[in-house]
Amino acid sequence: MFLQWVLEGGHGPGAPDELVLSRDFRGRVNGLAYYGTQLVLAADEESAVDAFAVETRKHRGLRSFVGPKPVVDGLWERVRGWHPQPVIVREVQPVYALTPQALREVGPDVGVRRAVDADVPLVVEHSAQMILGELGYDPRTNRAAYAAGVRRAVASGVWWVWIADGALRFQLNVGPRTEATAQLQGVWTPPEQRGNAYATLALAGIARRLFATESTLSLYVNGFNEPAIALYERVGFTRVGAFATYLFP
Length: 249
Hints:
Blueprint: H1 2-7, E1 18-23, E2 29-35, E3 38-43, H2 46-56, E4 64-68, H3 69-79, E5 88-98, E6 113-114, H4 120-135, H5 143-155, E7 159-164, E8 167-177, E9 182-188, H6 198-210, E10 217-220, H7 226-235, E11 238-247
Parallel strand pairs: 3-4, 9-10
Antiparallel strand pairs: 1-2, 2-3, 4-11, 5-10, 5-11, 6-7, 7-8, 8-9
Helix pairs in contact: 2-3, 4-5, 6-7
C-alpha cells in the first residue's frame, strides 16, 4: 500500500528517500524497498531479502522497519548482528480491508466531518496522547513543529473528527492513498468517551463518506489490541494479511 503510494508519487517533492528494486537472475523484479526515515519493504523471494539486508548497511538512522511480517522478520534476522536494537517490536499487526459492499449498518448516522483549522489544538492534544501511549514518546516536546504538521494535514482534508459539545469523541486520518485503496490511521477514541459505541458509529460514518471517492479502505492494527480489532470487524473490515514493525531509537 505505502509502496504503491510512493510509486504513484505520493511521497511529495524533495523527500529524502530512495526506492530500491531487487531482481532475480532472470531480471524480474522480486522485491521493492523504500528507504526514508523508515524502511518499508515487500519481497517475493528470500534472495530479495538478502539483497535488502546488504543495502540496509548504507542507510543509517532508520526509525523503523515496516512491511509484511515474513519479510520484515527475515530482514531483521539478517541485520540484527550489526544494527541497533529495536526499542519496540510489534510482532503481529493484522491488515484489514473494507469494501463498500461489506460496510455494515451499525446505527444512526452521526456528525463526523473533516477537521478544520479551529479543531487543530484539540486534534494535536489527542493525537499526542495516542502517540505517547502507542510509541512511548510525546511529540509535544517539539510542539510547534508537531502542531504545524497536524495543521497541514487538516488543511489538506485528510483528518476526520466527531466533536460534540466541544469534546472530541473520535478521530482518524487518511494516510497513503492509491488507485486501489486509502489507508486509515490514527484511529482514536479518548478514554473518557469509550464504552458508548462512538467509535463504531463514527468509523462507519467516515467510511460511508470516503466511499464517495475511494474504492476500498485499509488499515493495520497491533495484534494485541483486541478492542480495536473488534471495532473494525463490527464495521465490516476483513483481515487480509499481517505486518510487523520494528521501531528504533
